[in-house]
Amino acid sequence: MKIVDKINANIKEGKTFFSFEYFPPRTEEGVENLFERLDRMVAYGPTFCDITWGAGGSTADVTLGIATKMQNLFGVETMMHLTCTNMPVEALDNALAEVRKAGLQNILALRGDPPKGQEEFTKIEGGFGNALDLVKYIREKHGDYFGIGVAGYPEAHPDFIVDDEAQMKKNYWDSLAYLKEKIDAGGDFIITQLFYRVERFLQFVEDCRSIGITCPILPGIMPIMTYGGFKRMTTFCKTDVPPAITDALEAIKDNDEAVKALGITLGAEMCKQLLDAGVPGLHMYTLNLERSAVGILEAVGVLDTSKVPRTLPWRQVPATRPGETVRPIFWSNRPKAYLHRTLDWDSFPSGRWGNSRSPAYGTLSDYQFMRRHTSSDKRKDAARAAWGAELAGPEDVADVFVRYCKGEITMLPWAELEGLHSETSLIKEQLLALNAAGYLTINSQPALNGLPSSDPQFGWGGPGGYVYQKAYVEFFCAPEKLQPLLDKLDTAAAVTYIAVNAQGDVRSNMKEESVNAVTWGVFPGREIEQPTVVDPVSFMVWKDEAFDLWGSEWGTLYEEGSSSRKVLADIAAHWWLVSVVDNDHVKGNLFEVFGL
Amino acid sequence: MKIVDKINANIKEGKTFFSFEYFPPRTEEGVENLFERLDRMVAYGPTFCDITWGAGGSTADVTLGIATKMQNLFGVETMMHLTCTNMPVEALDNALAEVRKAGLQNILALRGDPPKGQEEFTKIEGGFGNALDLVKYIREKHGDYFGIGVAGYPEAHPDFIVDDEAQMKKNYWDSLAYLKEKIDAGGDFIITQLFYRVERFLQFVEDCRSIGITCPILPGIMPIMTYGGFKRMTTFCKTDVPPAITDALEAIKDNDEAVKALGITLGAEMCKQLLDAGVPGLHMYTLNLERSAVGILEAVGVLDTSKVPRTLPWRQVPATRPGETVRPIFWSNRPKAYLHRTLDWDSFPSGRWGNSRSPAYGTLSDYQFMRRHTSSDKRKDAARAAWGAELAGPEDVADVFVRYCKGEITMLPWAELEGLHSETSLIKEQLLALNAAGYLTINSQPALNGLPSSDPQFGWGGPGGYVYQKAYVEFFCAPEKLQPLLDKLDTAAAVTYIAVNAQGDVRSNMKEESVNAVTWGVFPGREIEQPTVVDPVSFMVWKDEAFDLWGSEWGTLYEEGSSSRKVLADIAAHWWLVSVVDNDHVKGNLFEVFGL
């Protein structure tokens, strides 16, 4: 969807919106960190996110890769920056084609900074010399397909900021006229350069309107995060900084925490003035960090991290998976692995799982998602600290699960994100007891009997509804524990289960084609929504992934042939993976069956 | 589905089953009565019902028509009898083709009785002389398509019942050999002639098994209902009646009620012995009456009318509408009209309404269903008694609705069956108040918040589940009442409504494409089922039917140009039909909005 349409919809609804800008990290580690941050920040509901192109297109591939994942795996409307720097037409064509293929529909068209080591921007052979030509070219080649953002400069472009007041005034109006040309050529909306004088931005908007620029103009907000960074950036951009800010910063410049805190305070003051003046939304330059940008938005009341709205219990990816409203529970702690394995699906399950799903799960070939916690030496060290430098036997393994439940460690191979899902808080004690008893849990949810859909922890789906869950738990257990457990489960009327080992031997009281809705919601004027299901078919796909992670993630921490590896390999080869649903969401007590 | 497959499935599950046999009534009135009875009796869950062909095929068209409706409108697996009497091959071909076209898959192949006025059966030119040839012919022409039942005679066919004991023995074994031929030729199962000696039936089964007949054999149970009828039938069939039965009957032969009661007692004794001896199911000759057949089944514990299982809140028609699991609420008191208007649909909504429905409702051309209560002079008299010989104004009309709510009258034009739906019992007082206040209700349901699916009144869907409802009410109201009501509805957070008049003016707070699930159920190991919905699209179709019934049903009671007709026409022309859902099934109180 075009960002300008989302912006205009927000304006029409009178809803103050915000957006986050990121840059491509230089290391793989940095990219992973960015993804973790994105995962949280996207949940806050930005209208869009954008990712810069990197000076001179040096990080083109990284930018493209991140933009694609932002759009498709994190499910946020994504805008990729594109600059003329070092970009011959063929390279531009390629980039636009790739972006389009990846389902992105938004480009921020920029001239770009000079390549590293150069002082001045120069047009390359077979390339473009300014953003205007780039906008024209995109419109010429791709018609109306792309939404195009362009940059606006409340203090004129730094190249044209001079001391001569008369000349400066001319330069300013020239830059406005040029901005109008970019809009007339097909630009949809404007994001401004950073600024620290609100009155300058408001004057800029007024001046834009006076020459007939009518599109949305978003203020670019750069939170002050470090003294050094602030100095470099404002010098580079020739930003006019009010002496009050400079003075306040100078006084605390050696105290990083104080600078950050001041940055949030100053940023919030600026944003409040902007919003009071009628600015419809805020574009945050995050510098890939969460705290300052989110802190400012929270301070001005645009964002409440304690009330992040959820349309479904899991995050939708509306851009590329429109209408997807149901997923199996098995991947709920590995949503990106699920997205990855179903990227090739032509259509996504909508409303119900049984009738419309494609059973063709793809393989999980992407290393990065497969080995979430051990994909670098640094991560391996952290994982080893959490999961043990050596494993003497299954007891040591069980101990890891117990410590995970206690919150003493925050990662497990079967969860992409760190820490227990907040949903499990209601059953934390039971999970702890379960793991201590040797049932090593990797997924669970408590029963819910009609909580308001506005519940801060469990609510989803919009106002006025009720949400429900059947209790679920999924765990590995040793073969000798299986039969006694199944005997108990068989006597529990409301319990359905599937147990499977790595060889694919199955013990179950469910029909193979059955689909069990374990999360559902009742809303005003709508059909019943049932976004999470348990189904044996998907479980049989998931179990391969689940068993594989013993070796492919955890096992890689240890030397080949080590006894620790053997411990894990034995478990993977002989233990069972068991999925249990208590179907009585009103009076059931799943953990009673285990004697807990 | 073939009946033998249903029988075998029951046998495999160890579930004692039953079936009902009917004959084609001679009058239109009789057909309507049969349909009302069928409507109740099909709900008891017979494995199949069958309808006889009538002596000499005299009622062929009636039989065909009834069989088609039994299968498609009442949703019971139906077997049509077909006899050789007076049936040339072309007539048989036509009948089989029609039956097949109507979706029936089961035939009881009989030789048939001699035509009226003849003593002996004679084969007609170009026809068949016995059931064996008929079975062969059906298999030859239709291969494996039809399930074929055949008749068995525990006392030999009456034509071969003679006094000479040796000859009788030979005749008996001849008739068994002939029965085996019918099975070998393609008969799937056997229904026996009526009998009153259980040991005779059991011997018959044993003898059948001894000569290699392995298919299911159902005892045909003819309850004694009247003394005269019993005498006629047993004489005609040369049935061997134990003297104890004859004596008992003779003693009370002038007391019809006592005969019926004795018939149930005797029938129950017989059936108990049969079941104790391992008979898998009971075939009841109902003679188109309910009490005796159902009474016997209840007495032996095969049927509990107080616990009629419902797979959905409305009765499914699995044979021709496989997988149909959702319907709009509007026709819930006129299910046959709904079936009728959607007979041409290629596929039926399954699981959800919004995605899969065909919006193409057919017209309601079938007079019989359109004018349910006024389709004959006799019915008109009854309707006039209920709805008033004269209507002075809307107050008289409202009074009819009030008396309907009070149970003083049992029919309304907007309900096919007589009496208020039992579901409304929870809100009877509120409905009464609503109608007294001039909101003339034609459909409603109370809110339910998780009743066990085994609830005798509201339960459906099988064991171990919970059922839910949103409160619903639909009514006509005078135009001057509309705006004050809508003002109230607009302030009630959880209420959605659509109001429409005959001209199609709409007042609503629902999106046109919205679909609101108002009945749903949560079951072990299954997706959430949501069998009843409220949707504006169907409502706009329904409203034409609802407004039309003022004139086309009620109005026909009065002279053209009469003031009573004018009262009804005025209401139809100016009043509004309003559909209201309280979306809060947990804490809502729909009737509060009305000040009730």
TrEMBL record, chains A, B:
Q: Which cofactor does it need?
A: FAD
Oxidoreductase in keyword set: yes
Q: Which residues form the MTHFR SAM-binding regulatory domain?
A: 310-589
Top-level division of the source organism's lineage? Eukaryota
Q: In which pathway does it act?
A: One-carbon metabolism; tetrahydrofolate interconversion
- Keywords per UniProt: FAD, Flavoprotein, Oxidoreductase
Q: Hey, which family's this protein in? A: Belongs to the methylenetetrahydrofolate reductase family.
List the protein's name.
MTHFR SAM-binding regulatory domain-containing protein
Species whose genome carries this gene: Tetradesmus obliquus
